[in-house]
Amino acid sequence: MLADGSHVRALGGLPSSIDDDALAPFFGPAARRLKVWVSSEAYSDAEQTTPQDAERAAALKDAEAYLVLYYAAPRINMVIADSGIITYKIDGTSSNEFTYLMPEDLEKLRQAWLRDAVSACRSYIMKAGVTVGVSPAEEQ
User: Fold this and answer.
1) Could you check whether the bond before residue 74 is cis, i.e. omega within 30 degrees of 0?
2) Is residue 110 part of a domain?
3) Cα-based distances in Å from 99 to 75, 88, 137
4) Does residue 18 sit within a domain?
5) Pair 37, 82: CB distance under 8 Å
6) Environment class of residue 64 by beta-carbon count within 10 Å: exposed (0-12), middle (13-18) or buried (19+)?
7) Overall domain count for the chain
8) pLDDT of 16-74, one tens digit each?
9) Domain span at residue 57?
10) Which is the most buried residue in 12, 69, 102, 123, by most CB within 10 A?
11) pTM of the entire structure?
12) How far apart are CA 102 and CA 132, in angstroms?
């Protein structure tokens, strides 16, 4: 694991109330996808205390954090109700009124984080010879 919960929260603008336990299930899928993109060797190097390529390690850390956000988005800070997914309170509404994030809006958010992940490590993906398509998202 390259990123940690603090880094994920910082890049995603998430509140501290979304703790490491809520994010933990998404680090595995993020790491697996990143290894496919950049190679296991590059990922392993980035895990080292002193990586051979510190710039690449920083880029991969960001990419992994964005991938965690991508995978976690459908599940964090949401309550499933009969009428849909309750996501957040809009300013000006009472404390018991919520808006619902429509599936297409959630997918737009996820795709933005996936694009951020690709952008963070694009030059290292190219070196690995992997073609990465952002949409539709490939689940791993």
Assistant:
1) no
2) yes
3) 16, 6, 26
4) yes
5) no
6) buried
7) 1
8) 988 999 999 999 999 999 999 999 999 999 999 999 999 999 999 999 999 999 999 88
9) 5-128
10) 69
11) 0.81
12) 26
